[in-house]
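Final report, results section. Input specification for complex C-07:
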Amino acid sequence: MYNPSLHQKINTILQESNIDIARNDNLFYVRMIANSGTIYDLYKDIYGNHPKGEISFSRLLDVIIAAYVTRSATLKTKDKEKAEKGIWFLSNEIAGMSLYVDRFCGSIKNLESKLDHFNKLGVNLLHLLPVFESPAGESDGGYAVSNFRKVDERFGTLDDLKSLQEKMNEEGIYLMQDIVLNHTSRQHEWALKARQGDVKYQDYFYMFDDSSVPDEYDRNMPEVFPESSPGNFTHVAECNKWVMTVFHHYQWDLNYTNPAVFIEMLDNIFFYANLGVDVLRIDAPAFIWKQLGTACQNLPEAHTLLRLIKQCAEVATPGMAILGEAIVGPNEIMKYFGTGLFAAKECDFAYNATQMALQWDMLATGDTRVMLNAQHELLRKPFGATWVTYTRCHDDIGLGYDDYMISDAGFNPYEHRKFLKEYYVGSFPGSTATGALFSSNPKTGDARISGSLASLCGLEKAIADNNIMAIEIAIRKILLMQAHSFFIGGVPMLFYGDELGYCNDYSYLDDPGKSYDNRWIHRPVIDWKKNKRIDKPGTVEHQIFTATQRLIGLRKKLKVVSDFKNITWLPAFNFHVAGFLRTLGEDQLFCVFNFSDRPAYLSWKAFKQQPIHSAVLYDHYTDDDFEIGTDQDFLIIDPYGFHLLQPVRE
Ligand code: GLC
Ligand code: GLC
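Structure output:
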């Protein structure tokens, strides 16, 4: 909203900060003036009634200006280049990989010498799982941060990270890093001070004198890790108080009703932005606002805070996109892209966790109907925002899509999920998967699934059985899963090791800092000697790597795969086949995937209901031409096979 006194205030501050509003910094000035009214309104929504609200708002403005002033010339140029591309992150030319620096190659320094691996594969966006300081025995894989600005010695130094970023930038590789917004480690300076009785810092967390309020909260709050960390509060002996710990007992939830917390964390966000982060992954945003009597997830204030962050970033560090890591149901996830006037103005990216889980659903059942029942929700994503698409990540697979999607397909939701869990732990007769149940909750019957892409697709068992046929089928499943996630729209994010078929790693069981958390089963330690097999035709690694490389290459070649809200699902003429059409201007790409273990017969009618400009389709993956047949003819798709078909121009 137009706010003259605010504009005047900003003009005064900017003049004092030596900002050249007429020339060099004019774009920044325009952004600041244009967004300031919204920033103020969003801020006021949350902190309007806080006694320190006004003072903190001035501090907020200072933080934004300081972020811009300290941003390097290189990054400012990069911001401009990105802006010239339109919405840069909708591009088909981006493909990502998420990895643990230490498990991938030991250290940040070593990673510099591994950039060839990504260039060869076609990956040009690296998500480094958290590298900032976190206590070794209680790190949650780096998600329990004790210092947001110090790189953990296990990985190297801040200078190593800066040097890596520069090298990546030279090679055209984007950087993605986390801000762990919801909590800190109990070893963070703020938590240490709170433990010593410092009330200022006790107010940075949700701390209570006795367990009565915590008990009240607990009545409505679900448990994230019911096996290893039941409940949502932990008693702190030093100060004899209870603190909210939604995740592990060593991760203390930050109190965002306190504006000082918000501003400190915004400052940390800008610290990462100015390290050259291209995509900022906001960890667990669904949890950042708590209110007694609610589940303390997905609350409206959490969205307001995310919008506020986005608006501030757009002013100071506009080239940095924001990924909200909300792993929530299909209806809730849409809201993270922003709603109403804020459509496409909240998170630029969200994980398509629903589609990810539904891919696993299709692979187990050979049936696409539950997946199709979710699409009317997922298609609501606004233009201008996009997905991270994936098959696996460092976390578990949750089956959090809605019951009606299952029952409308004719299945009983309870039995269906039970089947999926049994299938992926390998106990269902005929299953080839090797996975594990994660966070089983006997009170609710919920459980999620851990396991690597390869093991869940049957490769681990096939290799143990020395069964060549089964190995081939597992590889087909792996590539089917990857291809589906690469072409559906959004930026594909591979998980390290999956490009080479790494199976489960059971060594975590010997480490007391990890053994309570079986997500480590699918977080492999990379063996670079074994990786050399990618150059040896006939090996599993070669087959998976070259096919993955080919798929990424195709994606980069086909502009039609950019995410312009340009996907149409084909009618389900054969329920074993997931099929969609991507369209951009005159360009079309039909993508069809057979999720069953038998050949699938797909009527050409499925294609002909779309306006196709040719009688011949060229398959980019196999290099074959297919003539479109009559309504009585079929395209026959191999078991776990797929085609990427483009009408041949006549
Ligand atoms: C996110 C991370 C997960 C972590 C959790 C708590 O969901 O992806 O690994 O356990 O946040 O920080
Ligand atoms: C972590 C957990 C996942 C949970 C999520 C919430 O990712 O692994 O199961 O849903 O946190 O952000």
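The longest strand covers residues 577-584. The pocket of alpha-D-glucopyranose (ligand 2) is lined by residues 224, 284, 327, 395-396, 398, 448 (CB under 6 Å). This concludes the modelling results for the funded period.
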